[in-house]
Amino acid sequence: MALVRRRTLSSVDNDIQALKRDVKKLEQPITSDRLARRAVTSRELAQRSVGGAKIARRAITLDKLAPSVVNNITSNVVQLISASALGVAAAANQAVDVAGPQGPIGHQGGAGVQGPQGLQGLQGPQGEEGPTGAAGVPGPTGAQGLQGTQGPEGPTGLTGPSGIVDVRFAGSNTPIPFIIIQGSGGSMAELILPSITLLANQVVKLDAFANINFIIVQNYSVDSAISRNQGEIVTTDNAVMIQNQDQPFFPQAAVTTTLTWVDNPGPGTYTYSFAITGSANGITDASINSRGLTAMIITVTQ
Question: Which of 18-32, 59-73, 78-92, 263-277 has the lowest mean pLDDT?
């Protein structure tokens, strides 16, 4: 029995020494280089860990040992565990926490389903106005528009300088013979001008003449007149020759009557005429010969 106990204690002592060596190894600093070479993982620590199963297989119960041996073992184990337990636990945790080598990159996943379209953002500020573009080709000419209404009549223009605006004339060279009864006779002739329209600041200058011839005459009378509108006499002339009954007859006589007049009746339309009336006693023959009436329309500057 004594030999058996000594061998058992020796075996326990060997185990304790081995445990101390293992703990001493564990107490060495664990660097990244050491970890990389040995790659101590949690799985390997689990396989080599001193668990309850290993201790149970090799355990020596206290009832088989002497009390002094038990006390010695207990004291040593307590001191050993107190000194090394924390270091072992820290080293084990550090070994567990060290990351292993990076695994291969996995396959890229397929494209995900496109999400719904987001709300339209706020309108940005208006940009600067761009340069003016080149002028385009002129389009075709449009249709002519409707004629507008006639505007009001403008004011009367300034009167032009004085001068002849128009000239009217009437005349004849055809003789008009006297009608003679028992040595006495008479005749009449008239000239009429076309209508004349006078404006403001316009006048009409009238000139008239007539030639009357007598053959063997004792007494005669020639009346002439210029009229406006066949009733308004504007000027007259009278040529008379009177002799006593015992005085000799004139073998012939000639009378020329002339009239000049400037008429200013104001704006309007007028008709001018020239009338000649002749009478004689003791005559053989007489006639009203060449005659004429001229009207000149003149603008007068005030």
Answer: 78-92
The whole-number average pLDDT for the span 211-215 is 95
Task: Tell me the mean pLDDT in the region 253-260.
Answer: 95
The dihedral sign for the CA sequence 169, 175, 180, 184: positive
Q: Which helix (H) or strand (E) holds 215?
A: strand 202-217
The two structure tokens encoding residue 53: 């199963």
Distance CA 100, CA 92 (A): 15
DSSP line for 271-291: -EEEEEEEEEES-SEEEEEEE
Query: What is the distance between the alpha carbons of residues 213 and 178, in angstroms, rounded to a whole number?
Result: 10
CB 193 within 8 A of CB 273: yes
Alpha-carbon distance of 302 to 203, in angstroms, equals 12
Report residue 81 as tokens.
């565990």
CB-count exposure of residue 216 (10 Å: 0-12, 13-18, 19+): middle
Where does the pLDDT of residue 188 fall: very low under 50, low under 70, confident under 90, or very high at 90 and above?
very high
pTM score, two decimals?
0.47
Q: Measuring CA to CA, which residue among 94, 76, 96, 73 is closest to residue 84?
A: 76
Pick from 222, 187, 220, 219: nearest CA to 208:
222
DSSP state of 196: E
Separation of alpha carbons 212 and 290, rounded Å: 8
User: DSSP alpha helices (H): ranges in 193-246?
Assistant: none
Contacts of 183 (CB under 8 A, 6+ apart): 281, 282, 283
Left, alpha or beta for 18 (phi > 0: left; psi -120 to 50: alpha)?
Answer: alpha
> C-alpha angle 225/227/232, rounded to 5°?
120
Place of tokens 């005659």: 291
